[in-house]
Amino acid sequence: MRKHILRVLALLLVIAIAVFAWFAWPDKARQDVAAVAGARPDITAPREQVIPTVKTAKPIGWAQGQTPTAAAGLRVAAFATGLDHPRWLYRLPNGDVLVAETNSPPRKGGGITGWVMRVLMGRVGAGVPSANRITLLRDADGDGVAELKTPFMTGLNSPFGMALLDGQLYIANTDALVRVPYTEGATKITAKPELVVKLPGGGNHWARNVIPAEDGRTLYVSVGSSSNIAENGLAAERNRAAILQVWPKEKTYRVFAAGLRNPNGMALVPGTNRLWTVVNERDMLGSDLVPDYLTAVELGDHFGWPWYYWGGYVDNRVEPKNPELQQYSKRPDYALGPHVAALGLTFAADARLGDRFVRGAFIGEHGSWNRSPLSGYKVVFVPFTPAGWPVAGSKPVDVLTGFVDADGKAHGRPVGVITDKTGALLVADDVGNAIWRVSAEK
């Protein structure tokens, strides 16, 4: 009898292991990234996962003299090195560059989920504590290298976006939009930041961005979701997965657009001043879904998260259902590929990188942790028409690659992208702890 029981238990254990392996086994992509990019990506059937595919690029940094690889006709060199997890960039009117050296605030939650998240963040180079600092970089002699690197503001709370408006410098901390008076040419600010509006802080998506709106008197602030598909309840997502419009004088705000799982980079397209953003979409539907995207955003838009993706495809995992929203779920304008982690965005308004890069969007793709094979880990360019829309039939064009070596290890991971005062492109690399400068070959 005892042997029979042991055999049954052994069989049940084998079945349990097989079931676990079936759901936990890494899902391998069946499509090239390019097939899931552009205005008409190939949206295949979802492959739901109980445990996400985990494939990371081990961070190894850059050896002395190593750089990423620039596209033909371009060259790349270090603008600044020795930084502490640089994520976001902002150019001041005098040409000085601010860099937010920052990371996630301490992540709450214990147990298996908390442990897995901490391990994963460490494996991709994001486990370091936040420096909570904005640093000023100045290239006074114009040689393409910042000879001044000095703390500009300290004591912040996971700062990210920065923007000037009416003599005030606005900083998007993870939990609040704050401001300080700004004097052109200043190399240090010691004033205590003034609270403008509180924001929901932390969560899986902690970074908050801010840019001036086209009306010249309000600000757009992006706030990512706290979860993958609102699995912690919709109450935890209040004023999240959205772009907020803030009235800084009145210290009030409204939800400008919603259903955006993790909007990050925002910019106004030259000519029309229409708001665009890049968005990180959801996980655990397989290596081919869902594409991150670049899209125009208007007041009242809803892009479907968490119930729908890519303009109305149902995510059957989400409860409660919301069938009324489906017909109103807006389709994004341009897919960037699955799990590329598009974060940085700037338009080529004053870029001087040759004829190929005169009009369009530069996008920093931080790179996947949940796709096999890896995707992202580069800077791409999406060409635009004079009317301010992506060129029909176009695919993203590589601008800066080589962040991952032949063994699948990461020298760096690109995040924020801006142009400098000469028209070169600056790229924040938070694993390589550097700012790269991409310029046209002479």
UniProtKB/TrEMBL annotation:
Residues 69-285, 326-439 form the Pyrroloquinoline quinone-dependent pyranose dehydrogenase beta-propeller domain. It comes from the Bacteria. SUPFAM superfamilies: Soluble quinoprotein glucose dehydrogenase. It comes from Sphingomonas ginsenosidimutans. Pfam families: TrAA12 (PF22807). This is Sorbosone dehydrogenase. PANTHER family: LARGE, MULTIFUNCTIONAL SECRETED PROTEIN (PTHR33546:SF1), LARGE, MULTIFUNCTIONAL SECRETED PROTEIN-RELATED (PTHR33546).
